[in-house]
Amino acid sequence: xxxxxxxxxxxxxxxxxxxxxxxxxxxxxxxxxxxxxxxxxxxxxxxxxxxxxxxxxxxxxxxxxxxxxxxxxxxxxxxxxxxxxxxxxxxxxxxxxxxxxxxxxxxxxxxxxxxxxxxxxxxxxxxxxxxxxxxxxxxxxxxxxxxxxxxxxx
Length: 154
Fold this sequence. Notes:
29% strand; 6-stranded parallel sheet; mainly beta; Leucine-rich repeat, LRR (right-handed beta-alpha superhelix); 4-stranded parallel sheet; globular
């Protein structure tokens, strides 16, 4: 008798909410169509090195990736609007974050303690970046980062 083996998904998803992550870390791509991530699903994970968040998730909630100390890069796709309170706080290895033009708000302490941060790549212009709501201490105790705008010539 032949039996096929289908490995379990690295995610538990109910309707459109990502409830749990079972993966082994490394580069994590959250599936398109997920609209919400349950509170702190990834918080404290020390195996994730990169994460890609689809535009179907409009709001990254509070503490979602806090203390993911191996995380080096985060890509937020067009459609993400809000980066919640302390969403990436103390991701001490985070060197690069890619933000879409659709982001309208970065809440308090969103990237606080990201001491290795070198680049924030923003999908809009310098003028659009200046109009984006950035709450107090959104980047407290971060690295010496630079912002790269979509209209940069370099």
